[in-house]
Amino acid sequence: MNNMDPRDITIIMENFNRSDSDSKIVKVTVKRASKLSGAVTQLTFKCTLGQLKRYLEGAEYVQNIFPEMLPEIQEFLISGITKDE
């Protein structure tokens, strides 16, 4: 649903172990190229490991995975476009 090409995104996670449960809160940095300008920007946020897995699977809308996030952050996760563009 998010039409994400895995080659367009870099994920950096802190304090992560493969044995962690989906409810564990992790700090994630997403680095993306804007589909509008091509500029590469990064954003750091906290989410559950389960939310991150769902985002990376790409089968759901970002708005459903991260309903608590501001719309401009959701847009960045979808397209790499920032509010300043």
Task: Report what the structure shows.
- The chain has one domain (6-79).
- The protein contains three helices and three strands.
- The chain has helices at residues 49-57, 62-65, 71-79; strands spanning 9-14, 25-33, 40-48.
- It is globular and about 40 Å long.
- It has a three-stranded antiparallel β-sheet.
- By secondary structure, the chain is of the alpha+beta class.
- Strand 2 and strand 3 form a beta hairpin.
Quickly describe the structure.
The chain has 85 residues and is α+β, with helices and mostly antiparallel strands.
Which characteristics define this entry?
85 residues; alpha+beta; 3-stranded antiparallel beta sheet; 3 helices; 26% helix; 28% strand
